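Researcher: I'm preparing a figure for a lab meeting and need a structural model of a single chain. I don't have an experimental structure, so a prediction will have to do for now. The sequence is pasted below. Please return the structure as tokens so I can convert it later.
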Amino acid sequence: MLRQLDPTIVAIQSFADGRIGCGTIYKAANFQYYGWQWTQFFTNRRSGEVSHKQIITNLESASGFLRLNAALLAGDLDCFRVKTHRYIYPLHKSFLFIGNGHLQPYPAYEKGTEAIAWHINPARLRPRLIAALDTLLARYPHTTPSRPPA
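Model: Understood. Here is the structure written out token by token.
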């Protein structure tokens, strides 16, 4: 169906989250395996919410950046890493993978997490927090609420 919709699509790429396993469904669907990389996540001790590292490091989502970094500074986050497995299903014979990794045999079944330390550089974080706050303030300018007559 994808080939009919857009003949320029040459492959489907997907990732298996190592917390759950290593891609059993992708193996069953004949996806090719192109290795793994470590991915960091954070668990909020108070809420149990799990967040990807990208939110804590990427200013594109200013509200998420502020929220997670505030929790990190307050000591509410535990950091862990998992293996993220890359699977690709070629749709065309000419497909050639260009990137990190290469075609490999399927991995042995494995799942789990590994606790790691996350170090904060306050000198680098402070201006990024200010920039995120400025972004939010510019997006949602403060208005004075009307007060009921006395």
